[in-house]
Specification:
The chain is an all-alpha fold. Among the domains are: 41 residues; 46 residues. Helices cover 57% and strands 0% of the residues. It has 7 helices and no strands. The termini are far apart.
Length: 146
C-alpha cells in the first residue's frame, strides 16, 4: 500500500480550499490530484480530522480467540503438524480454516517451528572405485588364475 500524505500537506490543501479557492486550483497549486483534494475536504467535513485512516486489515482474523488454546495444546502435546492442528480446530471448535492460515497465524504468535519427521540415519557411503583400480584388480584376478 502507498504511504499517506503528510498531515501538513493535508492541512494546507484544506485551508486553501476553505480560503475560497476551487478544489481544482488547490490540486494544481499543491501538485496533487483533484481526487485527493476532494477526499481531504470530505474527510474534514465528516470526521473533523485530517489524520490518515488505518491501512490494511485491522481485524485479527477468526483464529485470534484461540491463541491461548493453541499455546496450551502445543505445551500439552509437544509437537503438532499444521494439519493436525487444523483438524483439532475443526473437531473441537467447529472452525474450518486453510492450512496456510494456520501456518501464518502460528508464525505471528511466535510458535512457528519445523517438525522433524523420523528418518533413520544414513549409512556411511563408500567412495566408488576408480576405473583404473577396477582394471588393476581385474588383471590381478586374471593373473592369479592363470
Amino acid at each position: 500500500m502507498g504511504k499517506a500524505h503528510p498531515i501538513e500537506l493535508r492541512e494546507r490543501v484544506v485551508g486553501y480550499v476553505d480560503a475560497g479557492h476551487s478544489r481544482r486550483e488547490a490540486a494544481r497549486v499543491f501538485s496533487v490530484s483533484p481526487r485527493f483534494v476532494n477526499d481531504m475536504v470530505k474527510l474534514q467535513r465528516e470526521t473533523g480530522s485530517l489524520a490518515a485512516k488505518q491501512q490494511g486489515n485491522p481485524s485479527k482474523g477468526k483464529l485470534s480467540p484461540y491463541a491461548d488454546w493453541v499455546r496450551g495444546r502445543l505445551a500439552e502435546k509437544g509437537e503438532l503438524t499444521l494439519n493436525e492442528l487444523r483438524l483439532e480446530l475443526l473437531e473441537q471448535h467447529g472452525l474450518e480454516v486453510h492450512l496456510g492460515s494456520v501456518g501464518n497465524w502460528l508464525h505471528r504468535l511466535g510458535l512457528s517451528h519445523k517438525k522433524k519427521p523420523y528418518r533413520p540415519r544414513a549409512q556411511a557411503r563408500r567412495r566408488p572405485r576408480r576405473a583404473s583400480a577396477l582394471v588393476q584388480q581385474a588383471h590381478a584376478v586374471h593373473a592369479s588364475r592363470g
